Each structure stands twice: as structure tokens, then as C-alpha cells.
Amino acid sequence: QVQLVESGGGSVQPGGSLNLSCVASGSISGRIAMAWYRQAPGQQRELVASISSTGRSTNYADSVKGRFTISGDNTKNMVYLQMNSLKPEDTAVYYCNTRYRLADYWGQGTQVTVSS
């Protein structure tokens, strides 16, 4: 079993920044790839960014490229999402995700609200 706990959400004005954190714990052996997803009201959950188990490869949704940065700390099984130049359309619940031994694990989610 793997447990994921996110933190760092909140409310911010357009153009502002937030930094999300997620820590993975449990029966984890070795490094793990991790990702951030988000789900806005009435919409499907979508991939925001992912990072490989080595940290050398990252992937971003087109809508966040150049504004968001995903990073990780393999020694602590943590992943971060630095979000800059936030827009109202970034408003959503953000979820941390990892796929470990063929099973998907999700955090409880953290709300990000961008509004003036």
C-alpha cells in the first residue's frame, strides 16, 4: 500500500503563485514516478504534469507549459508542483498520483482557487 498526502493549496489572485507538495509513504521499494492531476467542477480529471522515477524526464499538459514546474526528491519520495502565473481556469482540486506495482494511488486532493 502507498499513501499520498498533498499540501499547499489555497486561494490566490490571477497572476499569483502556489507551490504544492506531495509525500508518498508506505511499502515503497526504490524510486517511483509521480504525477499531478487536477479536476475542475463538472470536468474530467486531467494530467497536469508528471516526473519519471529518476527525475530526469518530465511531461506537462499544454495548458500549463511555461507556467508550472514539477520536481521531485527521490530521497524523501516527495513531488512538488510550482505554479506561476496562475489563471482562473487553473481552479481545480489537484491530486497527487503514483502508479506502483501496477496499482494507481491517489492523494485526497488539495483545492486551488484562482480568483480576483
What's the multimeric state?
Answer: single chain
Poorly predicted segments: none
Number of helical segments with 4 or more residues? 0
Mean pLDDT: 95
The 3D shape can be described as globular
| Total strand segments | 11
Q: What structural category do the secondary elements indicate? A: mainly beta
The amount of beta strand, in percent, is over 45%
Residues in helix, %: under 10%
Alpha-carbon Rg, integer? 14 Å
What is the N-to-C order of secondary-structure elements (H for helix, E for strand)?
A: EEEEEEEEEEE
Q: What's the end-to-end separation, in Å?
A: 40 Å
The main pleated sheet reads as: 7 strands, mixed
Layout of helices and strands:
Elements: E1 2-7, E2 10-12, E3 18-26, E4 34-39, E5 46-51, E6 58-60, E7 68-73, E8 78-83, E9 92-100, E10 103-106, E11 110-114
Parallel strand pairs: 2-11
Antiparallel strand pairs: 1-3, 3-8, 4-5, 4-9, 5-6, 7-8, 9-10, 9-11
Short description:
The protein has no helices and 11 strands. It has strands at 2-7, 10-12, 18-26, 34-39, 46-51, 58-60, 68-73, 78-83, 92-100, 103-106, 110-114. The mean pLDDT is 95.
